[in-house]
Amino acid sequence: MENFLTSLRELSPLWIYIILFLSAFFENIFPPIPGDSVVVIGAYLVGIGKLNIYMAFILTTMGSISGFFFLFLISYRYGESILEKKFLKGYKKTIFKVEKWFKKYGYGVILVNRFLSGARSVISIFAGISKLNPIKVFFYATIGCGVWNFFLIYTGYKLGSNWKSLIEFMKKYNKYTFFAIILVLSIFITIKLLRKKINR
Predict the structure, then answer these.
(1) How far apart are CA 47 and CA 94, in angstroms?
(2) Is-contact 109 102, C-beta < 8 A?
(3) How far is CA 2 from CA 6, 63, 77, in A?
(4) Which residues, 6+ apart, have CB-to-CB distance to 148 below 8 Å?
(5) For residues 31 and 64, is the Cβ–Cβ distance under 8 A?
(6) How many Å apart are CA 137 and CA 169, to the nearest integer?
(7) How far apart are the C-alpha atoms of 101 and 52, rounded to whole Å?
(8) What is the pLDDT of residues 110-129, one digit of tens each?
(9) Domain of 132, in residue numbers
(10) Which of 145, 118, 133 is closest to 60 using CA atoms?
(11) What is residue 154's predicted lDDT score, i.e. its pLDDT?
(12) What is the tally of structural domains in the chain?
């Protein structure tokens, strides 16, 4: 991380802005990419006067929205044909149930998707498969991305040289969020199975 930060400081602001945008974009498509951490580093560079806070916010938000919407459009266009693949036919009933649930609560999930780092890609994919309204998806995704990136950039900027503490916090937050999502899904599935058993 230190070497990466040193390399960034040596680049021109233009290249740093490009890196911030691309990391925010690809983090949606390839979740292992630490997009949030790069945004925090960008906030630190804002604090030392290397970057402009408004440009950093706009470009990271644009990158996040673009990445999310890219997956959404791909799933919107090709989702049905993907579900017809042989290896997914056995799961089609389950996928249909998730799709039905997503159509009911989808826009609220999209609004908070940036706060669910372990599920961002899955949310955009199911939003596309569920054929949610693209304009509404873009609107809610923009609000969610804007609030989340503002929090990261402003907090990282205020922390200054202590930006590493925010990254550590983000790692713990992401881990606990991931386990919370798994726990909620497990409870949801268990309740469904119990209800089905009782009804029988």
Answers:
(1) 48
(2) yes
(3) 6, 24, 42
(4) 64, 114, 115
(5) no
(6) 29
(7) 42
(8) 887 777 766 677 788 888 88
(9) 2-199
(10) 145
(11) 83
(12) 1
pLDDT given for residue 139 in this prediction: 93
CB within 8 Å of 13: residues ≥ 6 apart: 50, 51, 52
Which pLDDT does position 175 carry in this prediction?
A: 64
Q: What's the sign of the alpha-carbon dihedral 70, 58, 28, 100?
A: negative
Which tokens hold the place of 131?
């054929």
CA atoms of 54 and 59, how far apart (whole Å): 9
**What pLDDT score was predicted for residue 143?**
92
What token pair was written down for 33?
């990419």
Distance, in Å, from the CA atom of 69 to the CA atom of 52, rounded to the nearest integer, reads 26
DSSP H stretches of helix in the chain: 2-10, 13-29, 35-47, 53-83, 86-89, 92-111, 120-129, 134-159, 163-199
pLDDT at 87: 45
Report, as ranges of residue numbers, the positions in the chain whose pLDDT lies below 50. Answer: 87-88, 90-91
Quick one: pLDDT at residue 135? 93
88-94: long-range contacts, CB 8 A cutoff, minimum separation 24: none
